[in-house]
Every structure is written in structure tokens, then in C-alpha cells.
Design brief:
Layout (H helix, E strand, L loop, with lengths): L4 H9 L3 E5 L2 H10 L10 E5 L13 E6 L22 H18 E11 L2 E3 L2 E3 L1 H11 L3 E9 L21 E8 L1
Parallel strand pairs: 1-2, 3-4
Antiparallel strand pairs: 4-8, 5-6, 7-8
This protein binds S-adenosylmethionine (SAM).
Length: 182
Amino acid sequence: MGSGTTLIEAKLLGRNAVGVDINPQSVSISETNLKFQCETNARIFSRNGNAADLYFIKDNCIDFICTHPPYANIIKYSKGMEGDISLLAVDDFLEEMQKVAKESYRVLKKGKMCAVMIGDVRKYGKVIPLGFRVMECFLQAGFLNKEIIIKEQHNCRSTGHWEKQDKNFLLLAHEYIFVFQK
Ligand SMILES: C[S@@+](CC[C@H](N)C(=O)[O-])C[C@H]1O[C@@H](n2cnc3c(N)ncnc32)[C@H](O)[C@@H]1O
């Protein structure tokens, strides 16, 4: 959920939605951001929980999944919170994402889509293709690749340095939106 962007869009579009975030602070921020009047009658639920264990959602009952996980530990969303995958280095992060992919596959209806936004990371000047490694987790869970969308990043820390940067590597200025089909 983060700050609730996806739930806000669901509400505006009149789509029933359940949002999940491991961090109770994210739940309360999202609930505050969702306090606005709109003409739709969407039923929106926010839930403090772990995307790697969606025990409170039955098999084959969700029409669409939209998820934006942390990019391993590039930005830490909590301090020492159990289950927060933003505290994990790449290998442990991918192990948890495998569970997220498996749970996503379980709860989604057959034929429906699961969209995942994720970016790559760089360590010691080398690119770690986190996006494609997360993609593999979803393929291993049984999903098929429907689309790979490249999302150009604007107004991020690297934007102004893209052309005039003086280091011997290119700055990452895109993210992926993988659209998987069950
Ligand atoms: C990149 S942010 C999402 C931002 C969101 N798209 C928005 O617009 O605000 C990633 C979120 O994943 C949450 N998170 C980390 N580990 C999680 C887990 N195991 N299950 C569910 N959410 C988790 C973090 O608390 C954080 O809010």
C-alpha cells in the first residue's frame, strides 16, 4: 500500500480493493488519504499483513493484483520491523519475493493479471538486475509474461545528472512494470 496510491485509484475507479502492507504506519497513512468523497461505491479495505502470507484471502478470488514492492534494501521503510522486506539484502529479498509470487498466484483468478512495479539497483558500480530476478520469481510461481513495460523515471535524484554525470556508469532512470497472467 505505501501511502495508498493504488487504493485511492481503485476508489476513484469504483473498483473494490484490498490493500496489504506490513507497516501499520502505512495502513494509517493510507486510511487518512482515503478519506475523501467520491461518487463511486467501491468497497476499500486496508490490512496490516505480509504479502508473503495472504492467509486471509481465499484461493482464486481476486480479479487483479497491483504490487509495488521495495527494491530490496535501497529504501528502508521501517526500523527492524519483522517481515519488512525492505530490510533484506538481494538474496533474502528474492527468497521472500518468491513467497509473494506464490501467494499472488494462489489468490488470483485463472486468466487474470498481476502487475508488479520494480526497478534495478546498483552496487559498487555494477547493476544488479533486480527487476528481471523478481520477474523470474513470478514465472517460477506459474505466471506467464503478458507485458514488460519500461517506465521512465522523472524527477528522481538522478534526473538532472543523466547527461552531465562524471562517473563511469550510466544512471538508472527507468523502472519496469511486469504484467503477468495466471
Ligand atoms: C515501494 S513502497 C510502495 C509505495 C506505493 N506504491 C505508494 O504509492 O505509496 C513498498 C511498501 O512495501 C511495504 N512492505 C515491505 N515488506 C512488506 C511485506 N512483507 N508485505 C507487505 N508490504 C511490505 C513497505 O512497508 C512499503 O510501504
